[in-house]
């Protein structure tokens, strides 16, 4: 009679399917060690099952890793708490919360995604199963658009460009931690970035300079 592994037996006693066991195992591995070097054999060994069991529940390793990565993203976002509600609080405080959320999210997720640079199929599967509306950048854009509709931002505010700059700040702040061999970066404090996003760098109450006209040769 075949002997069932302790983890497999425990999973079945708790009503957890082998599908969920493998997904949970892969997610924990991503949270602890990232995605670099993940193999079917290692996932199966950590789950306490035979190597071939994975293919009974997932089409391939790429699907399992992509779904585990999505669960890792969802779990991380849930742990970071709620984002501000448009129209409530102050713009400064709300944007600061968004940026701090983005920084924490990048610190948790960039290491996992960086290990997939050489595995484009996993990234393709992740894009197929993930809901774009849930991305933090899109939630930031939606927040800014809502504040603009409420009249708390200028009608001509470039919300897409503002979101891109704030996301870029989070990227730049985290990348040196993931790639320490790159040039050192001393990012400005969050408050300064929020102030620049809200107030810009041009003199207040001034019109933009006219574009220079064409040069006319004598």
From TrEMBL:
GO MF, any single term: DNA-binding transcription factor activity
Per its UniProt entry, which superkingdom is the organism in? Answer: Bacteria
DNA-binding region range list:
39-58
Q: Where is the signal peptide?
A: none
Query: What keywords were assigned to this record?
Result: DNA-binding, Transcription, Transcription regulation
Q: Show where the HTH tetR-type domain sits.
A: 16-76
User: What name does UniProt use for this protein?
Assistant: TetR family transcriptional regulator
Which species is this record about? Amycolatopsis rifamycinica
